[in-house]
Design goal:
heterodimer; A: 150 residues; mainly alpha; 2 strands; B: 530 residues; alpha/beta; FAD/NAD(P)-binding domain; Polyamine Oxidase, Chain A, domain 2; five-stranded parallel beta sheet; 18 helices; globular; Cytochrome_c-type_DH (chain A); Cytochrome c (chain A); signal (chain A); metal ion binding (chain A)
Chain lengths: 150, 530
């Protein structure tokens, strides 16, 4: 399902993107419309949020659902103070949330993280493409987020 | 005399087995002889001899849970099923007029389809080799009808091809095949492949390219009546004085390449996409309802499980009734848990750390389906399209036409979007009204004169916003399979998981059923050994 028609991830995230692509190929046994779309994701943080993130986190970034079946809020979320936290989530996914390496480039990831940290929160500092690359290539490999901040 | 009982040939043997043992015995024998190894289904499990009074608690009344309840009951267990929703079936789901769709975030859609019309938001087509599902459909009296998968007369649209004008699949596919054949012929005749093929194979390939590609005497792919006999005519053959047809003009190679038609041609080669395909008459949820007719009395609906515990004596699920607010506990000796991992990973559940890690390692996809009800079947009446799919590179992915009630007057529901990937997220992020508007705008490329004019009403299901699952299907990678799959499916004390996520047929009903059969077989073995 993933990555069909999406702009392929590039640069330093290539190894991750490759892994995801291979996974995507393996997952092609899943049902799809057929063919490939040419849907483009914006380079601009606000639009990336609207085109991708709000499918689950909602337009107001307040998440939703009920206890035990919840989508976390991004608005007013203190975990986002650590800018490596959202980077890790976009690179690795967590729980039901997929990694975004096959949908977004490092530049798009940085843009949307800055939008979420600045617009829906008031955290200082700017995430750059270099930050994405730093986290994605830092030894040890990007930590699994299976146990972080559930 | 010996001939009466000794089969002379493999065919005789198979015929004999078929007579004596029925179709399933024959199928197993064929598999053993190296034929038809197309499924791991070996027939219903025929479990028996459960210890008197032993009990199983099943969580989730989707297909995996309902099948577990059916077969474990036959084996002699006392079974209870807890289901969060007010209906059985899970993702085996059809939306009809009068239904309400409530999303995370509070958006509510009241579905306005006419009686008899429906949208299958989840599974919608059944491959002919999904033998588990086909077996239970037959056993449960679920009537199947053909699903029109490959329609040569439907359209292919790409924004950057043919000025955005949709082309018929048969025209593009014939042209692609013809041009590729011509090029291979040229390469062969130029000697470019002499090192790769023998002289004899070269001759045979040239014949193959000429015949398969419908090339002319000069090995060129060009406009002709012979080519039109595949891609269609400008003026179709008729009768009498004006009966002679005129050919249609073939497209040039660059235009054909612009269309990316090979992606659709390749799609139809996929194992799970090959004809023959089926759908239940009246909606996909007929399958869940078929199971429910058998085991419905065991199912407690509107029951939200909040906690799962186990010890060496048994299992306990804590729950809340979503209608009355009543809380309670259900206990049993064993548990089959079919809840999706989007939910399970948020729940307090007493299983090993490695299984918990597996539960948190499965992202779910975010598909969107949209059903548009049209006042008439203009695609049949004007375009001679009866079922099948028109493809587009826009977010909606396709328009798919209903496979039932052909030629009928009155409103019909077509599938106005099957979006995944970036397109799926885009549509899911919209309000229901925005989704319908987008589907109308994008789908209009195929039927510009009628699409908006004939539109009556629509409904969408954005799986990432369905509060009971928060996604469509589990997504595995080779890495996550290696790291987590066995940990996910392993029996953990008295608990075993099942569902499409616990299979290598992810996202298919067949995977849910095969997973459930494997789970209950292991549970039964463990229970007898305990």
């Amino acid at each position: 399902m993933r990555g069909r028609g999406a702009r392929p991830a590039r640069g330093i995230a290539l190894s991750i993107a490759l892994a995801a692509l291979i996974g995507g190929m393996a997952g092609r046994a899943q049902d799809t419309a057929g063919g490939q779309t040419s849907v483009q994701v914006s380079q601009e943080g606000k639009e990336v949020y609207e085109q991708i993130c709000q499918a689950c986190h909602m337009a107001d970034a307040k998440g939703g659902g009920a206890a035990g079946a919840a989508v976390p809020a991004l608005a007013g979320n203190p975990k986002l103070a650590d800018k490596d936290y959202p980077i890790t989530l976009l690179l690795k996914g967590r729980g039901g949330m997929p990694w975004m390496t096959d949908l977004l480039t490092p530049a798009q990831m940085a843009a949307v993280i800055n939008y979420v940290r600045g617009h829906f929160n008031a955290f200082p500092g700017t995430v750059t493409e270099a930050d994405i690359k730093r986290v994605s290539s830092a030894p040890p490999p990007v930590r699994e987020c299976n146990t972080c901040g559930m | 005399m010996l001939n009466d009982i000794t089969p002379q040939t493999r065919r005789d043997l198979l015929a004999m087995i078929g007579k004596v043992g029925g179709g399933m015995a024959m199928y197993q024998a064929m598999t053993a002889l190296g034929h038809a190894a197309e499924t791991q289904f070996t027939g219903p499990p025929n479990l028996s001899g459960a210890r008197p009074g032993s009990t199983v608690l099943v969580l989730g009344a989707g297909l995996a849970g309902l099948l577990a309840a059916l077969e474990l009951t036959k084996a002699g267990y006392k079974v209870q099923v807890l289901e969060y929703q007010s209906r059985p079936g899970g993702r085996n789901y059809s939306v009809r007029g009068g239904d309400t769709i409530t999303e995370v975030g509070g958006a509510v859609q009241k579905v306005g389809y006419a009686p008899g019309n429906y949208l299958n938001p989840g599974p919608w087509r059944i491959p002919h080799h999904h033998r588990t599902l086909l077996h239970y459909c037959k056993a449960l009296g679920v009537e199947l009808e053909p699903f029109i998968q490959l329609n040569h007369n439907a359209f292919v649209h790409r924004k950057d091809a043919f000025g955005g004008k949709p082309q018929r699949y048969k025209e593009l596919a014939t042209d692609f095949k013809g041009h590729v054949s011509e090029l291979l012929g040229k390469a062969l005749n130029a000697g470019a492949l002499d090192a790769q093929v023998t002289k004899e194979d070269k001759e045979r390939l040239l014949v193959a390219m000429r015949e398969w590609g419908v090339l002319d005497a000069n090995m060129k792919y060009s406009t002709s009546l012979a080519v039109s006999a595949q891609r269609g005519y400008d003026k179709a053959p008729g009768g009498g004085t004006g009966g002679a047809p005129t050919p249609s003009a073939v497209n040039g190679l660059p235009d054909v390449l612009d269309s990316h038609v090979w992606t659709q041609m390749g799609f139809y080669f996929s194992y799970v996409m090959q004809t023959t395909m089926f759908q239940p008459k009246g909606g996909m949820d007929m399958i869940g309802k078929g199971f429910f007719r058998q085991v419905g009395k065991l199912v407690r609906l509107n029951t939200k499980v909040t906690k799962i515990a186990q010890d060496d004596k048994g299992v306990t699920a804590s729950w809340t009734d979503t209608v009355t607010g009543q809380t309670g506990e259900s206990k049993a000796d064993w548990m089959v848990c079919t809840l999706p991992t989007t939910i399970l990973s948020q729940m307090e559940i007493q299983v090993s750390d490695s299984k918990k890690a597996a539960l948190r390692a499965l992202p779910y996809s975010a598909q969107v389906k949209i059903g548009l009800e049209m006042a008439s079947r203009f695609w049949e009446e004007k375009d001679s399209i009866y079922g099948g799919h028109s493809f587009t590179d826009q977010a909606i992915g396709l328009v798919s036409y209903p496979n039932y009630n052909f030629f009928k007057d009155g409103p019909a529901v077509l599938l106005g979007a099957f979006a995944s990937g970036a397109g799926g997220y885009q549509l899911a992020g919209m309000t229901p009204e925005q989704r319908i508007e987008t589907a109308l705008a994008q789908g209009s490329v195929f039927h510009p004169a009628d699409y908006r004019k004939e539109f009556r009403n629509g409904a969408s299901v954005a799986w990432s916003r369905m509060p009971w699952i928060l996604g469509c299907c589990a997504s595995w990678t080779e890495d996550s399979r290696a790291q987590h799959y066995q940990n996910l499916v392993s029996m953990d004390g008295r608990i075993v998981l099942a569902g499409e996520h616990a299979s290598y047929y992810g996202c298919w009903m067949e995977g849910a059923l095969l997973s459930s059969l494997d789970a209950i077989k292991r549970l039964h073995q463990r229970a007898l050994a305990a």
